[in-house]
Amino acid sequence: MPVDPVTLEILKNHTRAAAESMAFTLYRTAHSTFVKETEDFTTGLTTPAGETFATPTELGATWFVGLNYGRVIEMIDDYRPGDIALTNDPYSGFVCTHTPDMHIWKPIFHEDEIVAFSVGHVHNTDVGGAVPASLSRTLSEIHQEGIRIPPAKILVEGELNRQVLDLFLTNVRAPDQNWGDLKAQIAACNTGERKVREMIERFGVDVFREGVADLLDYAEAQARAIVRNLPDGTYPFADYMDEDSVDGWPCRLALTLVIDGDELVFDFTGSDPQLESSLNMPTGGDERHTLLMVGMTYVLYSLDPSLYLNSGVGRVCRCILPSGTIVNPVFPAAVGMRTLSCSRLQGLILGAFAPAAPERLAGSPGSGGPIMNVNTTDNRTGRRIMAAINPMTGGAGGRAGEDGQDGSGANQGFLKNTPVEINEAEAGIKVLRYGLSPDSAGPGLHRGGMATEMRFQAFSPNTRVTARNRDRTRFTGWGIAGGRAGASSRFIKNPGTNREVDLGNTDILTIGPGDVIHVTCGGAGGWGDPLERDPDAVLLDWRRGWVTTGHARDAYGVVIAQGAVDGPATRALRAARANGTDNRFYDVGDECRAFEAVWTDANYAALTECLARLPVHWRFYAKHRIFAALEPLSPDDRRGDGSDVRQAFAALCAEFPELSDAGGAAAA
Amino acid sequence: MNTNESNASHRIGVDVGGTFTDFCVFDEVTGEMRSLKTLSTPATPGAEVMNGIAELERRHGARPGSIDYFTHGTTVGVNTVIQRRGAALALFTTRGFEDVLEVARLKVPDPYDLFSRRPAPLAPRERVYGIGERTLKDGGIETPVKPQDVHAAVARARADGADTIVVALLHAYANPANERAVRDAIRAAAPAMAVTLSSDVWPVIREYERTVTATVAGYVQRRVAEYIGALQGALGDAGVPAEPMITKSNGGIMAAELGKTDPIAMLLSGTASGVIGAADIAGRIGAADVLSFDVGGTSADVAVIQGGKPAFGTGETVGEFPIHVPTVSVTSIGAGGGSIARVDDFGVLKVGPESAGSNPGPACYGQGGTVATITDAFAVLNLLGAGELGYGAVALDRPAAERAVATLAEPLGLSLPETAESIIRVAVSGMYLEVSKLLSRHGADPRTFTLLAFGGAGPMTACLLARELGIRRTVVPPTPGVLSAYGGLIADIRNDFIRTAFVDLDAKGLGVLDAHARELETRALEWLRDEQGFGGEARLVWSADMRYRGQSYEIETVIDRSDIAAGRSGALAEAFHATHERVYDHADREAPVQVVNLRLVVSGSAPKPVFREQPVVPEAAAPRGGATIFLDGAEREAALHDRGDLRPGRHFAGPAIIAQDDCTTVVPPGFAARTDGWGNLVLEPEA
Fold first, then answer.
1. In terms of residue numbers, what domain contains A382?
2. How far is the alpha carbon of B325 from chain A, nearest alpha carbon, in Å?
3. For A466, A564, B324, B483, which has the most beta carbons within 10 A of its beta carbon?
């Protein structure tokens, strides 16, 4: 018997109040600065089966709406009042998605029965392992990424389980912080429990239980209504990360989106084999894993911001996740830096939806900008300084009716920067420039958002600069519906001098006094033909310093002279260009076009097919060998129909007899 | 000075709101407090004040010549921002940082929405000009200003149509010399150009926050100055002898004349003085922890008062922009009398945040509104309309309210009164959500709080919200409809000063702090004595924004000035540890402490009306009549009281409705009501 719609709305406000109060409790009492700076935590309430029905929206990470705790809840057999369980193991239940995230859950009893769980996670600054902060792209095994606690009770009927706590704290670099943050998590769970009790008292246990189920159904019904408004069809899309490992080959993320009535299927077949770097996304093959739902949630919520966000939203979707791939790695693949791949996967999902609603969705979000950290010495005090100086963000893609938000937005809209004055006061650097990067926006009738750029100088020897999540140096953010790709990201040492070094996707380097670093994010993609953009809009961007004279001419066909649009010259230039446009929906940029001329869909289909026959531990190696084999082929020798790949694979199998079965099958 | 022959003497507080202008009048001879509301006249700001002064004379015999104290809050600055009718701004920044307003702090308003946007800055990017200059973090000038660069920028700014220039340069908080050099160069090139310096507005570290605050100040300055000038003139013409004072966002007041050059300080004064009024009432009744609950036409404004002190914050928003000056912290909930109810595609009832505003307003105001609002729901339940609305400014059209609510009754499958009550319940649950968030942010337990309800619709909703939150005591002050005006009337003269220090708590750091403290003290006393002409006792309250080294956020900690002078770093650190413990439940007494900003609040007590507690004579209150209302799912007979009858000690039980000139109070079944010795209505669940 469903709860009446008035009571449901009231209950909804009460459940949200509970989740938000949990978040404020955690935020307020957490010890680590990391929690307060990055808000990388969640709180929430789930059903006894683990479906999240209440999530805070004011504080906390945006990625974990509707996280399903069911698989870890099941891993503890006997719950009693006062128990609290935790885990940070990405391979135990696949709720945790990298080791720094400590998830905890507390059963909430009414009489003898569990009516809900209060849950949440905190990203710990460090959980031990090979490197400080436990995260590095170079790590290849989960064992290097710190201590892993499989699901265990940290509180047993209200009593602290010292053994588990000591085991954890003994293995981390700053135990006081971990313990302080864990206490804040426990306090948040207790707040959630208290709020659930208040709700049961106010509404009665039956209305509470039924209402919670109805809230999930309500979100599901809303999501289905949004999906039903999209045209049925099959929408394939692929995009590439620049590197699958340090100086590696491109890494493909592929998705075939199927919209069928009010249902969605995400088929990730064709995505790369799991990597020997830490960019893998540990989903455990869960067809509604939260990491895979983020992009979809963004799309559905943006199409209708009245969508209530909880686990019900995910019910419209099912994922196909081939085992041993980047989207479903098998143990013990490293997963620590999944932030980069997940963020790019969100972009992939946005791109796959775009042709289904080209008048409502946007070009690629800006991406590939790193989180910048500086570790230097204060010349005045001699003290070593470690500072997070900024996330380098791009803008939102252009869309029908408006340019993308500049500087940030889309799936990066939750990030905050650090003021220049704070960076100079604290980080031992001088900032020479921070602002929007000229000519970075993907051109279009409505251009993409501009990316940010920063230039700073170091004053001390042995200054270490880390640029986590560098990407899009090579492959740029796509434009749609005639719009063009954004500019590539850049990371340069000593720009404009004879000591200039293009650092590409380097993510850590040491610089000295006087050295200057210049870094930008990749630009967001445009929407619609840039030759149709209002010349006055181009002129305004030019006056704002966001478009140079040359870029106005080359990208938009707008001739600017003496601070004004030269009308006749512009019309002539645009007329001469107009013939050359093609009708492809995506503009992926020159580098990607050149790459796809070699690595055609057929070649990738062949690669996927060949690698699937190999044991998981051979796949990454085999991929690299096949890429190396295709690299020297001249354009005349390439066939692009898959035979290039099959030939290389057969050669590989011939070289390694242990693969011969697979090789024979490929050649056939 | 009061130069009238008679002894009549009146103090008047006026608060101009979006719909109504509120007056609070204290008769110094009789000790009586009166209130009045007139309709605001947004088209001719200031006219409502003069209308009201005329009306006060007619109603209460308060002749303009007897007004010897006059405080005033106005929304003219906020409206200038919201309606985007301010100055044509140019912004001069340090070269290389021209996008400071565009980039802001990156985060978008709704990070779940791919299309969420930050607001377009008040200084458009094409009128931002980089100046080749540089101040370093320690205040050292690396590159001085070249006047000819500034002259060139001024020429471009004028050609591009700017009439006001805001100057916000890097590290100007540490040394304003370059900003002042730019200002001097602008004056040389364009003597008539208005100039605003970020280091004058609020010299605090963090360039976006300082710059956006300065742009808001520059944007509203001319309009605010014109408004104040016109008001001063009109008061003078009317024969009002009082020199007008203006209310401030920090809960204080200052001479209106100063508002012409320091407009940023008064932008959010309306909500702030309501909280000051609430805190004053709370102090009188000995309530330490109070939630002030001010419900108007478009929003419910809630503020936390703990230990008798309102919470302060920076980054409160004006229109879409955060302003980083000390402001009484008020949370605005999108649920006011005009909030619209609707049924969504899935049959669920939603209330707000869309509002019918004051035009057309709720259907029951009979001004053309047809959609159901919270006020209409109250009208259908017969909880509204027993008394005059807004002193007769509006007449209640109940059939129109019923027609509007009926459109929702059918899809919900409920009767008309059930639908109306559902609208109220959903609205109250939305308020519950926001208040819960606010209290958890403060780590506070609602059960220890008193709810102080005011504003036109606050006392109507208060008991319902108190019940939802588990709050035990609700208080409705004597003139709930005009509490902001009252707050202005009793506020102190007050100003804030800040100096960014960014030092460790060591001997060297304390030396820096002591030098800064001397400078602030001199500046503060100058302000109070010379600029305000205040001769009474000056109160100085010192605080510091402190943190553990490595943290990126600070906590304002009240400190003892003598600890700085005497070099007692341990005492200063302990003040911070204790504050950290109170705010965050833990402290690290081993960790090194930094001082980011030193702050000083200077205040002087303005002459205040004196109230006397009246003897309480317990007796049952006799109702004027009764009304059939619908509440808690059933029709009920409610007693109808006139607030004027409820002398101290009178008591009665709900359900009841209390009518008074400026608002209606609803007492649900199960609540007991009584009047205390100060004339407050105290509502508590029956034992």
1. 363-529
2. 18
3. B483
Give the number of domains in chain A: 3
More confident residue, B626 or A487: A487
Residue A152 lies in a domain: yes
State the Cα–Cα distance between residues B217 and B224, nearest whole angstrom: 10
pTM: 0.94
Q: Which of A529, A550, A585 is the last residue of a domain?
A: A529
Which residue does chain A place closest to B419, by CA atoms? A6
* CB neighbour list of residue A162: distance below 8 Å, 6 or more residues apart: none
Percent of chain A with pLDDT over 90: 86
Res B479: pLDDT: 86
Instruction: Please check whether residue B191 lies inside any domain of the structure.
Output: yes
> For residue B569, what are the domain limits?
493-604
Contact status, residue A632 vs residue A612, Cβ threshold 8 Å:
no
Q: Is the CB of residue A365 less than 8 Å away from at least one CB of chain B? A: yes
Of B106, B125, B550, the CB nearest to A393: B106
For the cut 90, the answer to whether the pLDDT of residue B195 exceeds it is yes
What pLDDT, on the 0 to 100 scale, is given for residue A580? 59
The mean pLDDT of A637-657, rounded to a whole number, is: 93
Contact call for B102 and A5, based on CB within 8 A? no
* Among A233, A217, A235, residue whose Cα is nearest residue A225: A217
A-B CB pairs within 8 A amount to 204
Closest-CA distance, A580 to chain B, in angstroms, reads 31
- Residue A118 CA, distance from chain mean position: 26
Q: What is the per-residue pLDDT across B280-331, written as a single tens digit (0 to 9) for each?
A: 999 999 999 999 999 987 789 999 999 999 998 888 888 889 999 999 999 9
Residues of chain A with Cβ-Cβ distance to B156 below 8 Å are none
Which residues of chain A neighbour B171 with C-beta distances below 8 Å?
421, 424
Q: What share of chain A is helix, strand, coil (3-state, %, to 5)?
A: 35, 20, 40
Check CB contact under 8 Å for B584 and A28: yes
Residue B104 Cα, gap to closest chain A Cα (Å):
8
Q: What is the ipTM of this complex?
A: 0.95
Q: Span B612-629, mean pLDDT? A: 92
Best residue of A4, A20, A293, A421 to probe chain B, by most B CBs closer than 10 Å: A421
Q: Give me the amino acid identity at A388.
A: A
CA distance A218 to chain B (A): 8
Mean pLDDT across B125-151 = 97
